[in-house]
Amino acid sequence: TVNRLEMMAAARMGKEAALLTTSGTQSNLIAVLTHTHRGDEIIVGDEAHMFWYEVGGAAAVAGVTMRTLPNDSSGRLKPDDIERAIRDKDIHYPETTLLCLENTHNRCGGTVLTTDYTDEVCNLVHLRGLKVHLDGARIFNAAIALGVQACALAENADSVSLCLSKGLSAPVGSVLCGSQDFIERARRFRKMLGGGMRQAGIIAAAGIVALETMVERLVEDHANARRLAQGLADIKGITLAQENVPTNIVMFELWPELSGGEFMEGLENAGVKVGLRNGRPFRAVTHCMVSSSDIDEVLTRIETVCRRLRHGAHE
Q1: Residue 239 sits in which domain range?
Q2: pLDDT, tens digit, for every residue of 168-210?
Q3: The sheet that has 249-254: what strands, in order across it?
Q4: Which residues contact 269 (CB under 8 A, 6 or more apart)?
Q5: What's the pLDDT at 109?
Q6: Pairing verdict, β 41-45 and 174-178
Q7: Do the Cβ atoms of 9 and 162 come closer than 8 Å?
Q8: Of 53, 131, 226, 228, which alpha carbon lies 20 to 30 A from 182's?
Q9: Smallest Cα–Cα separation from 103: which of 38, 24, 204?
Q10: Per-residue confidence at 71, pLDDT binned at 50, 70, 90?
């Protein structure tokens, strides 16, 4: 069953082989370990999941330094910035060996990297001798949003990770895809990290169901996210924190005069869960367990909380 899942994932990404892992964080770390050597430097966005939410594993375990470049609001890195960040060969410098992209981009609000952009950047760094790893945890969301096959987004990347347990809704799991040689080496690093599993077919079976039945329905999540964003924009006290909502992530902010702590407490009491980290905008994510009627109910509850806060602010 695991073999079947890996073959399916590789085919979906247009790669020769694939490797089941426990999480996207593990997939990304294995990719860094496989593409680089200790002391190398890798290029990532300053808003990248790999930089923010993966416990510094690239440094602590793989022994590489992360050179961050600014992500624009669409999650892109400017090609000129990438070009300048690639170090010349010099005994004093670490060797730049890997560029990491993210599609869709989490902290930028589920934004999508197009095939043209991805191909341009991959071609640029390949000419300089670098490899490209694509953190494609939500790559199927990007593909649905663009109306293309996921393999088109991963075609020129040397490796790509995809998550089975986000929009695809499997209980657990990620798959790392690449060339046959890359996956053979990656398999050793998975073992080193304690990621070799026995009787993993039960996990893989859910992943197969996810790939076979959950991809096309992502369009429903995107529609619900837009429905949520449109409703939030009409609530006095809330401002959207993104120009558009291309996939399933909605980010929004409170008016400055309203209390974020009281807002979160009010939402919790109302049975509504949203994300908030490090003073960032609030973050809401749609998925298969959230229907359009759920969205309408959430908007009603958020409006009620905001109305109470507005009245309190004017007392």
Answers
A1: 218-313
A2: 999 999 999 999 999 999 999 999 999 999 999 999 999 999 9
A3: 238-240, 249-254, 282-285
A4: none
A5: 97
A6: unpaired
A7: yes
A8: 53
A9: 24
A10: very high
Average pLDDT of every residue of the chain: 97
Where residue 172 falls (left for φ over 0; alpha for ψ -120 to 50; beta otherwise) is beta
Nearest CA among 220, 228, 224 for reference residue 251: 228
Exposed e or buried b for every residue in 124-139, given b needs 16+ CB within 10 A?
bbeeeebbbbbbbbbb
Provide mean pLDDT across the span 244-261: 94
Is the whole model's pTM more than 0.85, yes or no? Answer: yes
pLDDT at position 313 is: 61
Report residue 58: phi and psi, to 5°: -60, -40
- Judge if 286 and 164 occupy the same domain: no
Segment (H or E) for 68? strand 65-69
215 residue type, one letter: V
Q: What is the dihedral of CA 86, 89, 91, 96, to 10 degrees?
A: 30
- 304: tokens are 């009620």
- What span, in angstroms and rounded, lies between the C-alpha atoms of 1 and 204? 6
Q: Which residues contact 175 (CB under 8 A, 6 or more apart)?
A: 5, 6, 9, 18, 19, 20, 21, 27, 161, 162, 164, 207
Number of domains in the chain: 2
Looking at the DSSP assignment, which residues form a beta bridge with residue 100?
Answer: 133
Do residue 257 and residue 118 come from a single domain? no
CB atoms within 10 A of CB 73: 13
> In which element (H, E) is residue 131 found?
strand 131-136
